[in-house]
Amino acid sequence: MKLSGHGARLIIASVVATNVATAFANDAHEQLRKLPAATRTHALATTATSAGFACAGASSEYKGMDKDRRAYWRVDCSNGQSYMVSIDDDKAGSTKVVSCALMRKVGADTCFVKWKK
User: How much is the pTM?
Assistant: First the structure.
């Protein structure tokens, strides 16, 4: 399983603002959410690529946030692959990337199901 390393941690945060504006929200996620769709998808695809996955972004979708305020986004790539990008609620906006195909194989396919709000 490939996860993003130190080199990809700040990809999203470098595309968006790096200042933490509030202690009650995932700032990197909020800044990403406010970007135009094409820019947001490009940032997520760049994060996946930096984690070792080939991805030219075609679309992206916000999936939800967990109890630790970690945000989850799916990025769909032009090569037919999809990845789940998690954005931690920390000052750096640390990210992890997991292949949706791998998630499906291990029975944790949350990439393509509707998340409860």
Answer: 0.77
